[in-house]
Design brief:
Number of helices of chain B: 0
Distance between the termini of chain B: 34 Å
Helix content of chain A: under 10%
Radius of gyration of chain B: 13 Å
Number of strands of chain B: 11
Distance between the termini of chain A: 41 Å
Structural class of chain A: mainly beta
Largest sheet of chain B: 7 strands, mixed
Order of helices and strands of chain A: EEEEEEEEEEEE
Strand content of chain B: over 45%
Oligomer: heterodimer
């Protein structure tokens, strides 16, 4: 069975600084997708970034980038130039290729400080 | 806005009552998912539909839970004889097209007294 682990329950970062959120996963699959979702307080979850396991190049979306280490089964999220609006719960998720069920971690609560 | 919508947003009920939630997916999406999220946890998969067919159900989905998607558009999730342990946020998501990224609705927060 696949598992997703986020070992940092809470983190804080100063506005304009860079922060990295950690995620590890366990799977025997070779083809899969990894996701980071953001869930602001009392608001709906939105996709931040996704990574296909077959792609060696790390995904980047504006200030958000990932460090995908397939052999280590690690998928960290880097947020550059942090903004107050980045304050939210961040969830790492895994989905095996050919399936439609996503497995989520327990989340990291990120607070951006002014 | 053509995002995923859910109704109601909040529901308070007494133990033993039945409740029904509705989800309207993004119109062109043929897959629809239900997840449950308890406080301090990530979403847990409950079930998913491809068009009107329910293709996978989690063991979390007890006999008191039933989900339908009668015409392959909106879906309903019914909980019968609610228990306090059913208190949670119920999230709906939909997907379609390349990559099958799941887009989430705002959720229905259920409180069972």
């Amino acid at each position: 069975a696949q598992t997703v682990t986020q070992s940092q329950p809470e983190m804080s970062v100063q506005e304009a600084e860079t922060v990295t959120l950690s995620c590890t996963y366990d799977t025997s699959e070779n083809n899969y997708y990894l996701f980071w979702y953001k869930q602001p307080p009392s608001r709906q979850m939105i996709l931040v970034i996704r990574q296909e396991a077959y792609k060696q190049q790390n995904a980047t979306e504006n200030r958000f980038s990932v460090n995908f280490q397939k052999a280590a089964k690690s998928f960290s999220l880097k947020i550059s130039d942090s903004q107050l609006g980045d304050t939210a719960m961040y969830f790492c998720a895994f989905r095996a290729s050919g399936t439609y069920k996503s497995i989520f971690g327990t989340g990291t609560r990120l607070k951006v400080l002014a | 806005d053509t995002g995923v919508s859910q109704d109601p947003r909040h529901k308070i009920t007494k133990r033993g009552q039945n409740v029904t939630f509705r989800c309207d997916p993004i119109s062109e999406h043929n897959r629809l998912y239900w997840y449950r999220q308890t406080l301090g946890q990530g979403p847990e998969f409950l079930t998913y539909f491809q068009n009107e067919a329910q293709l996978e159900k989690s063991r979390l989905l007890s006999d008191r839970f039933s989900a339908e998607r009668p015409k392959g558009s909106f879906s309903t999730l019914e909980i019968q004889r609610t228990e306090q342990g059913d208190s949670a946020m119920y999230l709906c998501a939909s997907s379609g097209g390349p990559g099958e990224t799941q887009y989430f609705g705002p959720g229905t927060r259920l409180l069972v007294l």
